[in-house]
Amino acid sequence: MKTASVSEIKKELLHYSKEELLEVLNKLSKYNKENKELLHYLLFEADFEGNYIQKIKEDIEIEFSGLDARSWKTMKKSIQRILRTIKKHIKYSKQKETEIELLLYFCQNMRELNIRLDRNPVILNIYKRQLIAVNKALLTLHEDLQYDFKESLEEAEAAIEGM
């Protein structure tokens, strides 16, 4: 069975009544947790991006505080799990400012772990990839916004240059 394209789905949804659309959205939210989370963001969080970012930052702090630093392997897996969650929230938002702020906050929490990043190349590469993503997203912003994030980015880059 071939799945319809996004444009075909949009055209078909135009023919639905309000009640039918509500029923479709309800069904959509029941089958996948990610769909439900996206609907939650769109309905309750999209208008208050600052609060959304703050909630995610609190979740990141909780995750980092519970990080098991006894072995590199478990630490790497925990860091990757945290990063997957952050990327999911970035995908919901689709705003470059949110992406930059969350990734810089992730890097800040990595620095606060007080681990030697150069001792584990995998964790160091995770950190470096986030800095590259921040730089790429930063280029798409207005100059004034770029300036606001530059200092935090320079701090994050200085952490790996000093090794």
Give an overview in words.
- The structure is a single chain.
- With 163 residues, this protein is mainly alpha-helical.
- It is 79% helix and 0% strand.
- It has 8 helices and no strands.
Q: What structural class is derived from the secondary structure elements? A: mainly alpha
Total individual domains: 2
Task: Indicate the proportion of strand residues.
Answer: under 5%
| Sequence stretches where pLDDT stays below 50 over 5 or more residues | none
Average pLDDT figure:
89
Q: N-to-C SSE series? A: HHHHHHHH
- Overall geometry comes to elongated
Could you estimate the helical fraction of the residues in percent?
A: over 70%
Q: What is the number of strand segments?
A: 0
Number of helices: 8
How does the major sheet shape up? none
Rg (C-alpha, Å): 19 Å
The N- and C-terminal alpha carbons lie at a distance of: 54 Å
Task: List the topology elements.
Elements: H1 6-13, H2 18-31, H3 33-45, H4 49-65, H5 72-93, H6 96-112, H7 121-138, H8 143-161
Helix pairs in contact: 2-3, 4-5, 4-6, 5-6, 6-7, 6-8, 7-8
